[in-house]
Specification:
UDP N-Acetylglucosamine Acyltransferase, domain 1; single chain; alpha/beta; elongated
Length: about 250
């Protein structure tokens, strides 16, 4: 499902400065450690990287590509965040901490998106066409997550920390694991809701699958043996027991 995205119009001065103010307010809204706008302007590398990108993208679109790449690499050295000048980034992108974030040339990032450190929006093709992800509005991508290829992450979705996403994701989804497993939200998130920063609140899909398999095995054993078995994990006992083992199933 293609998310509706708004590409920033940095070529027009009023919109350019409006984008800068919007980015600043977004950082203040989404970081509880932020105290004042002046502090954010002075000390937040994520904001600095985005602001430099507003300039480099304008240069890129005006065909000053070498200068744009030079400035983007300069920003990378200062902030630890690499954003290719060709990437289209909407208003209100907030990069928290930011070290190690990489956004590729043909990536499209919607409005009010939140990225944590170590996030990669990368490509998987040698073709020069669209090869990086499209990120919908109000998406949150947790620390260390990798979103790879020409795929779409639907609006209001949440990508768990260290997830590896290689397939498109519908709107209002939660993605966890390697490779990323898509889970539909029980409570939808919409425009106007508070920013969804709960990127650590993720279901354990593997634990659920194991529990379902164990329940199925118990049902089959009951059917074959003609009597019920307790629904639990069969752990070794006595000398076969694993000393100090901790089971959380």
């Amino acid at each position: 499902m293609q998310a509706e995205l708004i590409t920033p119009k940095v070529s027009q001065q009023p919109n350019f400065f409006a984008s800068l103010r919007y980015d600043l307010n977004s950082a203040l809204e989404r970081d509880p450690a932020a105290r004042t706008k002046f502090e954010i302007m002075l000390l937040y590398p994520g904001l600095h990287a985005i602001w430099v990108h507003r300039i480099t993208h304008w240069l890129w679109m005006k065909d000053f590509k070498l200068v744009a790449r030079w400035l983007s690499q300069l920003a990378r050295g200062i902030t630890g965040i690499e954003i290719h000048p060709g990437a289209n980034i909407g208003q209100g992108l907030f990069i928290d901490h930011g070290m190690g974030v990489v956004i590729g040339e043909t990536a499209i990032v919607g409005n009010d998106v939140t990225l944590y450190h170590g996030v990669t929006l990368g490509g998987t093709s040698l073709n020069k066409g669209k090869r990086h992800p499209t990120i919908g509005d109000r998406v949150t991508i947790g620390a260390g997550a990798k979103v790879l290829g020409n795929i779409t992450i639907g609006a209001d979705s949440r990508i768990g920390a260290n997830a590896v996403v290689v397939k498109s994701v519908p709107e209002n989804s939660v993605v966890v694991g390697v490779p990323g497993q898509i889970i539909k939200r029980t409570r939808a998130h919409h425009a106007g809701d508070a920013p969804d920063l709960n990127h650590t609140s993720m279901p354990d899909v593997f634990a659920v699958a194991i529990k379902e398999l164990l329940a199925r095995v118990d049902d089959l054993e009951s059917h074959v043996a003609g009597h019920e078995h307790p629904n639990h994990v069969h752990l070794p006992h006595g000398e076969e027991a694993w000393e100090g083992s901790d089971f959380a199933i």
